[in-house]
Specification:
Elements (H helix, E strand, L loop, with lengths): L1 H24 L57 E5 L3 E5 L8 E6 L3 E8 L2 E4 L6 E5 L3 E3 L5 E4 L3 E7 L9 E6 L3 E9 L2 E4 L7 E4 L3 E6 L25 H17 L9 H13 L3 H58 L6 E7 L12 E4 L5 E6 L12 E11 L4 E11 L2
Parallel strand pairs: 17-19
Antiparallel strand pairs: 1-4, 1-14, 2-3, 4-5, 5-13, 6-9, 6-12, 7-8, 8-11, 9-10, 11-12, 15-16, 15-18, 16-17, 18-19
């Protein structure tokens, strides 16, 4: 029997690790896409007992039976809250919320007395034991000079459930208003300070491990602020706000991924993960955010490559159109030259000045251009004053030679005729 229990405990410890890996491996539509909370395995739903730390080393058997109804004083069909009870199991986990999802804060032993404030889904809500304290951000408090009390300065300030043995601290046990007072227990823990639990704070234990002994007992007083608690019920503490934000970012990321490639915008989602990463204190949340940011970077590169390929086709089409336009211009020019030229003319066109050579003593000062003002040849002559023919269409005869430096033909005019 002892061997079976040890095997079961090993399997339970391994299970959350698999969930944590699945959380960062890909996107999912359910809560498993959030990072796993902590590394300490919760007991199975069939029972609630301590299996970690000092409790695991105890030789006393841990309670593992399925949760059942609370044992009440004889003759009472319904309990009267609050009432005093005693723990009936050897070692029992006291959790920060009414469910195995919530992390353990401490353990109680057989015979320990508790005060039950209410019951919720087979979980009893108790006043916190002395080992349980709250954690609040220093930035939300104005701590008195003596360091034993503080006043809430933020409009809303969260109190996180913790204890010396708690391995996690994301559960919001209470929310205080501005000007509420708290007792400082100390010592500081980084950006946080220990405070006495406010009066509305409850911790939870499976109802089958407590038997009622005194109905109508008074709840012990503490130095925390008074907060009304509805009779017969206690609201479940909030979840880890960073995990909630992570799940929201995951949903936004999947929404972008459903869009057509080329229309996706990951800027806002990446900013969400970056904000969570900067606030997270736990390694598993930081790792999950870094994995998502790496995924987004890969998706961005994929989209950029796609758009590059799409643009390549467009650029090729533009280049091809440009080549075809140039070819058409060359053909048009060749046809124009063939039309204008006669068998006995070396060249034919309108005489224009070479503007770049004005004021320069150089034998070539004029050119022939076609109807689009494109140069055909340049002209030089010792027999004609070409200045008299500027603006006229002429045909010329003479010697033609290629001017390599200018990349154009030059005609030495021996004879010309005015055509227009």
């Amino acid at each position: 029997m002892r061997g079976i229990r040890l095997l079961a405990a090993c399997l339970l410890v391994f299970a959350p690790t698999v969930s944590a890996v699945a959380a960062t491996a890909g996107l999912s539509d359910d809560a498993s896409s959030a990072p796993a909370v902590g590394t300490t395995a919760a007991p199975p739903a069939s029972g609630e007992s301590a299996v970690t730390g000092a409790a695991a080393e105890s030789t006393a058997p841990a309670a593992e039976a399925a949760p059942g109804p609370a044992t009440l004083p004889t003759g009472e069909a319904e309990p009267t809250y609050p009432y005093t009870g005693k723990v009936m199991a050897d070692l029992v986990n006291v959790r920060c919320g009414p469910g195995l999802y919530y992390y353990p804060l401490t353990t109680l032993s057989k015979g320990d007395e508790v005060v039950v404030a209410s019951e919720r889904d087979q979980w009893l809500a108790l006043r916190p034991p002395e080992s349980v304290f709250g954690l609040m951000r220093k930035s939300d408090l104005d701590i008195a000079a003596g360091g034993t009390s503080a006043v809430v300065t933020s409009p809303k300030a969260r109190v996180y459930a913790s204890s010396p043995t708690a391995k996690r601290r994301w559960c919001v046990a209470s929310i205080l208003e501005q000007d509420d007072r708290v007792a400082i227990l100390g010592p500081d823990e980084g950006d946080f300070v220990r405070v006495a639990p406010p009066k509305d704070v409850r911790v939870y234990i499976v109802n089958e491990y407590v038997t009622a002994s005194n109905a109508g007992a008074d709840l012990p007083e503490t130095g925390g602020p008074e907060t009304a608690v509805p009779e017969g019920t206690v609201e479940a503490p909030d979840g880890n706000p960073l995990i909630d934000a992570f799940q929201t970012a995951d949903r936004n990321l999947k929404t972008e991924m459903r869009k057509e490639i080329g229309q996706r915008d990951f800027e806002a989602t990446a900013a969400e993960y970056q904000a969570i990463l900067e606030k997270a204190e736990k390694d598993y949340i930081q790792k999950a955010c870094k994995d998502r940011l790496a995924l987004i970077e890969g998706l961005r590169e994929q989209q950029e490559a796609y758009l590059e390929v799409q643009g390549l086709g467009q650029r090729l089409d533009e280049r091809l159109a440009e080549i075809q336009t140039r070819r058409a211009e060359k053909e048009t020019r060749r046809d124009a030259e063939a039309t204008m030229g006669r068998a006995d003319f070396v060249a034919q066109g309108m005489v224009r000045r070479l503007e770049i050579l004005e004021g320069v003593d150089y034998p070539i000062k004029y050119k022939l251009v076609d109807q689009n003002n494109r140069p055909l040849v340049v002209l030089k002559s010792t027999q004609y004053d070409l200045a008299d023919y500027v603006g006229k269409v002429i045909g010329v005869r003479g010697t033609r030679e290629y001017v390599k430096d200018w990349r154009i033909y030059s005609v030495t005019v021996d004879d010309l005729e005015v055509l227009e």
